[in-house]
Design goal:
It is built from six helices and 21 strands. By secondary structure, the protein is mainly beta. Strands 4, 7, 8, 10, 15, 16, 17 and 19 form an eight-stranded antiparallel sheet that branches. The chain has an eight-stranded mixed sheet with strand order 5-6-9-18-11-12-13-14, with no helix packed on it. Strands 3-20-21 form a three-stranded antiparallel sheet, with no helix packed on it. A hairpin with a 6-residue loop joins β7 and β8. The radius of gyration is 20 Å and the shape is globular. It binds 2-acetamido-2-deoxy-beta-D-glucopyranose (NAG) (7 copies). The site of one 2-acetamido-2-deoxy-beta-D-glucopyranose (NAG) has 4 residues, from loops. Keywords: Glycosidase, Hydrolase, Membrane, Signal, Transmembrane, Transmembrane helix.
């Protein structure tokens, strides 16, 4: 119920944007209607195109060919201190797939330096929210988000992983009491309203005033063996090193025993603040978010925005780049989809084909940068993310 209608939002927001309509009006794509050869890449938002359409979020199975999308830049263990924005690209239209140069892209919205020096505030105004996306993809491992969530009715903070086939692992704060965080996960973007996988977790601490560390993948490492806990067989969430939830892959087996509905594909890391409490939102969405946003709220009036604060993000990869072969350039290693296995679960391999636009196959068809209108499609819409909670 809460999952956002991307198609409707696209139409609405493109209409509002002043960008040229040529590409924005380009064909749409989905699991039954794939992209044509001339515009082979199916973007995260379901539009066919070239250039940036072939980068982060490009949907391999809805594109002209599975390999039309550029490979996903492979995981590198790292820590970003958000006081330092030197590896954060603030103008997403300049992103060309070079994850050696940028760790994060500001897909939408605006950052404001935290007044206490604790990194950056992601802001939300009447014009929309903010979405920060990693350039690299994690394929199992652990992510530690050190952050403060938002606390206002209708305003949602999310820290998630999202793959190009819509496997998703979520941490969310949806106007919950300030001692709670919500968890959820999705397999291939399938939402089953009668079988919600969401969890709500109390902990001792304040989500708005404390700088807590929220982990997807597992608890803080006690040993190297314990560390990498978004694994092939289990997934965990933790707060300040304490595990709050474990989901085993075994527990996700479908009723007919044919498929594990378990997130298993390389995913970008995304942090966002978004307006769920708008009159245009579905009723269930508004309720989940704690009501409509009050634009006269004193914090909003005083600051000119609502916010959350991200101090740092640490990534520990279970699956870093293959570099055993000296002919492989480390900067070009990516994950690429190779099809489905017999249970219709996507299979992924590492490739040395460049992740960068304009350099080499695959995505040769998509190599020329042609992105007029991409901001209308890509930057004006908050992705489907985590917009469901039951
Ligand atoms: C895919 O898109 C086509 C054309 O826009 C539409 O008719 C069809 O219903 C869509 N299919 C799905 C599964 O969304
Ligand atoms: C973002 O980059 C594009 C392409 O280089 C440029 O045309 C545009 O003016 C930039 N936007 C801002 C706000 O700097
Ligand atoms: C990517 O960026 C790195 C670091 O700035 C640079 O050395 C490299 O040449 C770039 N690669 C491509 C293919 O543009
Ligand atoms: C969780 O915290 C809320 C208040 O924020 C409280 O009402 C509820 O009883 C707590 N639940 C548990 C299981 O402790
Ligand atoms: C949704 O979940 C319910 C309860 O587990 C199950 O009976 C139903 O088949 C599921 N629906 C789909 C479409 O998988
Ligand atoms: C990719 O790997 C193959 C086989 O090792 C090698 O021949 C080729 O030169 C490599 N290409 C790049 C761009 O690294
Ligand atoms: C793989 O299976 C999924 C369903 O699990 C389906 O949507 C997708 O189209 C399949 N892809 C290919 C290439 O067969």
């Amino acid at each position: 119920m809460l999952r956002f209608s991307v198609a409707a939002a696209a139409a609405l927001l493109i209409g509002l944007a002043s960008a040229p309509l040529a590409l924005a009006q380009g064909t749409t794509c989905n699991s039954t209607v794939h992209c044509p050869r001339s515009a082979p890449c199916c973007s995260e938002y379901g539009f066919c195109g070239t250039g940036q359409f072939c980068l982060g979020g490009c949907q391999p199975f809805n594109s002209y060919e599975t390999t039309s999308c550029k490979p996903n830049p492979v995981c590198r263990s790292s820590t970003t201190d958000f006081n330092d924005l030197s590896r954060v690209l603030l103008n997403a239209t300049q992103y060309n797939g070079n994850a050696s140069k940028w760790d994060w892209v500001l897909e939408k919205g605006a950052l404001v330096a935290d007044p206490s020096g604790n990194g950056q505030r992601l802001t939300l105004t009447e014009h929309g929210g903010t979405l920060l996306s990693s350039t690299r993809y994690i394929h199992y491992g652990q992510i530690d988000f050190t952050m403060q969530a938002s606390k206002w009715a209708g305003v949602v903070t999310a820290a998630i992983t999202m793959s190009d086939v819509k496997d998703e692992i979520d941490l969310e704060w949806a106007s919950t009491p300030t001692n709670q965080v919500q968890s959820n996960y999705f397999f291939l973007g399938v939402v089953n309203y009668t079988d919600n996988k969401g969890g709500t977790h109390n902990f001792s601490g304040n989500t708005f005033t404390d700088m807590n560390t929220y982990t997807v993948g597992g608890a803080t490492a006690a040993s190297a063996d314990d560390q990498l806990n978004w694994q092939e067989d289990q997934l965990q969430w933790a707060v300040n090193g304490k595990i709050i939830r474990t989901v085993t892959k075994a527990s996700t087996l479908s009723l007919d025993g044919s498929q594990y509905k378990y997130p298993s594909t390389p995913s970008r890391i995304q942090i966002s603040i978004w307006p769920a409490g708008l009159p245009t939102s579905a009723k269930g969405t508004i309720e989940w978010a704690g009501g409509l946003i009050d634009w006269n709220e004193p914090d909003y009036v005083a600051n000119g925005y609502f916010w959350n604060t991200v101090k740092s993000v640490s990534i520990s990869c279970a699956d870093e780049g293959i570099e055993t072969d000296s002919t492989i350039l480390p900067d070009t290693v990516g994950y690429s989809y190779t099809g489905n296995d017999t249970s219709n679960t996507p299979m992924v391999a590492q490739t040395n084909h460049s992740t960068v636009l304009g350099s080499g196959a695959p995505g040769a068809l998509a190599a020329s940068i042609s992105m007029i209108g991409v901001t209308a499609a890509a930057a004006a819409i908050i992705p489907a993310l985590t917009w469901s909670l039951w």
